[in-house]
Amino acid sequence: ADAVAFFGPHQAGIVTPAQDRLHFAAFDVIAKDRAELIELLREWTAAAARLTAGHDAGHFGAVGGIPEAPPDDTGEALGLPASGLTLTIGFGPTLFRDADGRDRFGIADKRPAALADLPAFRGDALRPEISGGDICIQACANDPQVAVHAIRNLARIGFGRVTMRYSQLGFGRTSSTSRAQATPRNLMGFKDGTANLKAEDTELLKEHLWADAPDGAAWMTGGSYLVTRRIRMLIETWDRTSLGEQEAIIGRDKGEGAPLGKAKEFDEPDFTAVGKDGEKVMPMEAHVRLAHPDFNGNARLLRRGYNFVDGSDSLGRLDAGLFFMAYQRDPRKQFVPVQRSLAKADILNEYIRHVSSAVWAIPPGVSGPEDFWGRTLF
Ligand code: HEM
User: Fold this and answer.
1) Which of 118, 186, 201, 214 has the fewest Cβ atoms nearer than 10 Å?
2) Residue nearest to atom 26 of ligand 1 (CA)
3) pTM (2 decimals)?
């Protein structure tokens, strides 16, 4: 009952109402040629179809095989339901042409223009070892064990053909991707995901989310593009900031999530109001103003990020923040201009550091059991 359909024109895990948990993995491909890569994608797709339906990764399962061989499922999800698991694959720029300029899989001429490398942004503190990657898989589920089990089994299947470059666990969705969901809160304590593209916005999704043939790469029709950024929050500094200052930085009030100067979460912000007598209005450099479509050539994003806390660092500060994920039709026209505005002026920058970055082409959905992830590319 809690299984999300795997097959369809678009991959699941994009407009699917955001689940509570994330395990995101970025892989480097070491498969020696195109045939080996395609074989892996076929095996991964078959496993993903099984896993998302709540089954074991392989036909025999965790305990059904012969005792002389390693099981074709690792077993930690035995007895757990599908838990809304979605598995979403993406291809990074280096899959098309690696750092040495090699076209390892004969697909360099298929690289979509929209899959351009992201430019450097002011304030970036990127760590190369947790940035980029040839292939990503986003696992989202309502049970962390189910999401981790899926990534672990896909990595196991990929042994000898991919290596894990980095992975990120996330909890507490920081976005609503459906109007049926209440808006959750990020680790700064603010509602996050109020002004987001949502599953019900069919016309807007066509315009701002789904790639289409006229965009240039016909194989991407029905796909999308994903930008991932691990954003560390300087939590301790934030926690010593006054409530009024916090609200001015975001541009919304902390309790209700209403735009400053308005009463309700879903009221439209007023960017022209001038405050008198201590009345709260939207500051010029508020995050929601700088990120708003009106000031970024109508750019919209489907944000689908997660909170993370990876313990604490050597100075005793929480290693915590937002694993930002945003889907869109063309990052050159959406993420890039928005992040440029934010990098330039956002007061939030004093409290955050972008430490990893990647951009991915998210191919269209898998049509049925004969189809496989990325078939249209090959
Ligand atoms: C809105 C927090 C980074 C783009 C918001 C809101 C909050 C928030 C609380 C208001 C609620 C909402 O409408 O969802 C944060 C935090 C960040 C972060 C804590 C970093 C740790 C980013 C980045 C981008 C971005 C990197 C894109 C480059 C947006 C957009 C909106 C928004 C487009 C909606 C603006 C509107 O139309 O009203 N963010 N954000 N945010 N944020 Fe962020």
Assistant:
1) 214
2) 339
3) 0.97
